[in-house]
């Protein structure tokens, strides 16, 4: 709807009582940017880089990656762009890598685990990202962090790359922010520890739900368990937000839940700072937030967090008069 688009694109998202949140878009490649700009988000909350690697049967070079990241940053014209390092494995295979088939690929060799094993591949990407950071507002994010060692190792390798670039006289953003995805239950459970060493969090509900509820996100037979209203997942989200805020760190969400209208008031009430979603959801989410009161949402979230089952939560939320429902 043209009128709504004009009203809600490129505007701040702010509740009736003045609470501001960021509304960002998820991107899977450079070809998504045009569509994203049409909806005028505050930035990109998740740029998935794996498709860049999956496109061909050889790995993208530093130069090829640098050009892609630089173009994305320039097109976003100073708005923040969170680029996630390679998250391959699980459901996404990489022709160039020839990864052995695994019995439990979602519990196996993927994402940051692969990158910390194949430091050559990781460094190529980090160097490209660092070089691109000179051309816009880039933040880097590591996927699938499970413990503090992984975060420390990944940051050490990033520092190595910075030192290399300095020696080579190549410029990059010295204050580049480095965040992590919270998408493994262990990371949510130690989010107080991780918040001390990460600049920001982004909650990946797609995987956080899969791992918390022990339900394969691709398996239709058990999809009834894959439930946005599950109290265990909502508790982990709340815990993560509180732990980030104790360390004054920003916490966003880039899983599908972030664009799911019925839960927006609850997530807002829990204190989430940023929602990153499919660009086509941006206008309806902005419109909803403009009609909400943060103080009401806090009470709503408190009530939800006391409840015992997903049915109870679902019924409660649908009984409340919130526009859009
Ligand atoms: C997630 O797990 O919620 C997420 C955003 O990452 P992906 O869907 O790419 O695994
Ligand atoms: Mg994920």
TrEMBL record:
Keyword DNA damage recorded: no
Family, similarity comment: Belongs to the PEP-utilizing enzyme family.
A molecular function GO annotation: metal ion binding
GO biological process: phosphoenolpyruvate-dependent sugar phosphotransferase system
EC id: 2.7.3.9
Residues bound to phosphoenolpyruvate: 48, 84, 206-207, 217
Organism: Caldanaerobius fijiensis DSM 17918
A Gene Ontology term for the protein's cellular component: cytoplasm
Catalyses which reaction(s): L-histidyl-[protein] + phosphoenolpyruvate = N(pros)-phospho-L-histidyl-[protein] + pyruvate
UniProt keyword Transport present: yes
Intracellular or extracellular location(s): Cytoplasm
Annotated PEP-utilising enzyme C-terminal domain residues: 8-292
Primary localisation category: cytoplasm
Binding annotation for Mg(2+): 183, 207
Alphabetically ordered keywords of this record: Cytoplasm, Kinase, Magnesium, Metal-binding, Phosphotransferase system, Sugar transport, Transferase, Transport
Job description of the protein: General (non sugar-specific) component of the phosphoenolpyruvate-dependent sugar phosphotransferase system (sugar PTS). This major carbohydrate active-transport system catalyzes the phosphorylation of incoming sugar substrates concomitantly with their translocation across the cell membrane. Enzyme I transfers the phosphoryl group from phosphoenolpyruvate (PEP) to the phosphoryl carrier protein (HPr).
Active site: 254
Protein's name according to its UniProt entry: Phosphoenolpyruvate-protein phosphotransferase
Cofactors: Mg(2+)
Enzyme class: transferase
């Amino acid at each position: 709807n043209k009128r709504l688009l004009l009203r809600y694109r490129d505007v701040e998202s702010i509740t009736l009582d003045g609470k501001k949140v960021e509304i960002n878009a998820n991107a899977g490649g450079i070809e998504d940017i045009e569509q994203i700009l049409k909806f005028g988000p505050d930035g990109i909350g998740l740029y998935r880089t794996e498709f860049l690697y999956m496109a061909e049967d050889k790995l993208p070079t530093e130069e090829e990656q640098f050009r892609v990241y630089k173009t994305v940053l320039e097109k976003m014209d100073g708005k923040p762009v969170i680029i996630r390092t390679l998250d391959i494995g699980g459901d996404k295979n990489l022709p160039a890598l020839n990864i052995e088939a695994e019995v439990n690929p979602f519990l196996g060799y993927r994402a940051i685990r692969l990158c910390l094993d194949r430091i050559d591949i990781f460094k190529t990407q980090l160097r490209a990202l660092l070089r691109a950071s000179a051309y816009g507002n880039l933040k880097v994010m590591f996927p699938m962090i499970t413990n503090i060692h992984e975060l420390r190792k990944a940051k050490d390798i990033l520092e190595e790359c910075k030192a290399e670039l300095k020696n080579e006289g190549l410029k990059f953003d010295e204050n580049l922010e480095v965040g992590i995805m919270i998408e493994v239950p262990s990371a949510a459970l130690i989010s107080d520890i991780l918040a001390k060493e990460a600049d920001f969090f982004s909650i990946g509900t797609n995987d956080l739900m899969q791992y918390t509820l022990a339900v394969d996100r691709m398996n239709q037979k058990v999809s009834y368990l894959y439930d946005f209203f599950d109290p265990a997942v909502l508790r982990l989200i709340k815990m993560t937000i509180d732990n980030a805020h104790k360390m004054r760190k920003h916490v966003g969400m880039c899983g599908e839940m972030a664009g799911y209208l019925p839960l927006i008031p609850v997530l807002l009430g829990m204190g989430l700072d940023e929602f990153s979603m499919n660009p086509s959801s941006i206008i309806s989410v902005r419109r909803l937030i403009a009609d909400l009161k943060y103080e009401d949402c806090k009470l709503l979230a408190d009530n939800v967090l006391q409840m015992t089952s997903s049915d109870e939560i679902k019924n409660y939320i649908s009984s409340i008069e919130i526009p859009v429902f």
